[in-house]
Specification:
mainly alpha; Rhopdopsin 7-helix transmembrane proteins; transducer; 265 residues; transmembrane; 10 helices; odorant binding
Amino acid sequence: TLFALTFVCYCVIVQVNVTLILTIIMDKSLHEPMFIFLCNLCINSLYGTAGFYPKLLIDILSTSHVISYAGCLVQSFAVNSSACADFSLLVLMAYDRYVAICRPLVYHSVMNPHRVSALVFAAWILPVGQMLIITVSTSTLRLCGSQISRMYCVNYVIRRLECTVSITTVIFPVFILTYYFPHFLLVICSYFYIMRTCLTCKEERIKFLQTCLPHLMSFITVALSLLFDVLIMRLSSEKLSESAQNFIEMQFLLFPPLCFLCRKS
């Protein structure tokens, strides 16, 4: 059944991520920047899926799909902040690979424990802080509807229910795009220099295939999933069947975690 399939999928995600987190924490040889970033990516995967899967499992068993306004805001905060944190952590991993391959002689001085801790802290606190401000702002809006058009709550679909379009509804998406677009450019630049270095050195080419290619696939999966999800939210999807809409909404929360699991394995 759908419930059993969804439950198994969620259990696999939880089990693999918890196993990897414990392995990285307990094995001191894995206390390197790349594995620290990977550990945080696992934690974020648990956090993001916890904001979505439990409610989905309840909805599958229930005949009425209802969520409180407070619950909707909490789910929106969890899903949005997890997506942004994913993006930030993947950017840090790209920078780490750039320093390791293009500047190996200064790798340990650049990626020292203090700097790694600061980068990880920023990758968490900035997305969480941004989404907390946006969620609090959304909670103050006067809504003229109570039915959302998606399987789960996100900030954009909640704001579509407001009676009059506020200035924050226009400003926040522009701010998020302005903030995260340079992240995307940083990854592109990092891999440009990495590939240029790998073309001239066979040893670095092997390192690229072992560590960079899986990360690049993960980043592309997350970026395309986010882009596709945003485009669907902002473009009319009335011509799509309900099953197609549900699949499109699910792919953002399903494919990135599964891609991470394949990469971590």
